[in-house]
């Protein structure tokens, strides 16, 4: 594997580095129309999840490098650990990087999640416009082995396998993911797939999504469509239309997302969202966002960082984000 990753690169003197980085994000969240009533809260990680991370790289020669990333999540409003109290709940992996690509092992983001966060969603999975409010999918996978290729002639691939580590069969709790992306100039396109088997390997959930993003200069537009196969036949599909545009010293964000439930219950949802990020410096910005969800037939999708959803929940965010 090391020889495959290294390819034909020339020898380089060994060097190593470790970087400490993070995000400190706090905001005011106003929720209206939820099933439990109105809520006003100081919340954590409204625009970007708060984190403290350590990443390192050691050049091994021949174009090969050893890498690692350990990333802790925390709540800035209470100081509590995020992701259920895990020490490095956001990411924890080690791997090798070379001329052909990168192989990593550990707790990592799935190819599906990276496609929607980095390409489809103008809010970057944050603020009241967060696409995960209504779109079906997953975020992280434990025990995952991932290969990400370098980009060649505009194309790159991302393949992932998450071991279920459950007695009785390798398919139990197993995760499979794959992505194929193309980028040329202002155009970016991604096809991505994710599958998760249940604990008995008798059923599975699967998500497939196509995303196209184009930068017109005056604005950047994205379009995504996902087909979802849920457990026990809970099928649905999601469509997202988003845009970002420079405005003053910051940028304007907007999206509309439709979730269509294909079951007999027809629990559809429609989310509208708009926001603005005002740049204070290279590392700091102020943000404001508005999101509203229309839930049909008992659907219970939530707006913003809400904990419940009524027939028409609304969220408003005002906050500060600092990246270091």
UniProtKB/TrEMBL annotation:
The keyword Glycosyltransferase does not apply. It is found in: Cell outer membrane. It comes from the Bacteria. Keywords: Cell outer membrane, Ion transport, Membrane, Porin, Signal, Transmembrane, Transmembrane beta strand, Transport. GO terms for biological process: monoatomic ion transmembrane transport. GO terms for molecular function: porin activity. It is a multi-pass membrane protein. Homotrimer. This is Porin. It comes from Pseudoduganella rivuli.
């Amino acid at each position: 594997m090391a020889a495959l990753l290294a390819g034909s690169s020339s020898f380089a003197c060994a060097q190593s580095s470790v970087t400490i980085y993070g995000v400190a994000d706090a905001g005011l969240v106003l929720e209206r129309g939820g099933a439990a009533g109105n809520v006003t809260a100081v919340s954590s990680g409204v625009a970007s999840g708060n984190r403290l991370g350590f990443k390192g790289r050691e050049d091994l020669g021949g174009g090969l490098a050893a890498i690692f990333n350990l990333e802790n999540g925390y709540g800035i409003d209470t100081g509590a650990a995020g992701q259920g109290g895990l020490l490095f709940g956001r990411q924890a992996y080690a791997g090798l990087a070379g001329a052909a690509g990168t192989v990593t092992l550990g707790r990592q983001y799935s190819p599906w999640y990276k496609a929607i966060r980095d390409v489809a969603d103008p809010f970057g999975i944050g603020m009241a416009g967060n696409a995960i409010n209504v779109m079906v999918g997953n975020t992280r996978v434990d025990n995952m082995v991932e290969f990400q290729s370098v980009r060649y002639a505009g194309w790159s691939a991302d393949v992932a396998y998450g071991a279920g580590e459950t007695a009785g069969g390798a398919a139990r709790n197993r995760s499979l993911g794959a992505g194929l992306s193309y980028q040329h100039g202002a155009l970016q396109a991604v096809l991505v797939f994710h599958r998760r088997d249940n604990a008995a390997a008798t059923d599975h959930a699967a998500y497939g999504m196509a995303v196209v993003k184009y930068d017109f200069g005056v604005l950047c537009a994205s379009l995504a469509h996902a087909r979802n196969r849920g457990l026990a036949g809970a099928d649905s599909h999601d469509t997202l239309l988003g845009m970002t545009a420079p405005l003053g010293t910051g940028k304007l964000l907007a999206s509309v997302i439709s979730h269509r439930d294909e079951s007999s219950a027809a629990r559809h949802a429609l989310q509208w969202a708009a926001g603005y990020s005002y740049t204070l410096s290279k590392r700091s910005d102020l943000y404001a966002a508005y999101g509203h969800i229309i839930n049909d037939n008992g659907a219970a999708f939530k707006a913003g960082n809400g904990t419940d959803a009524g027939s028409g929940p609304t969220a408003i965010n005002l906050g500060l984000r600092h990246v270091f």
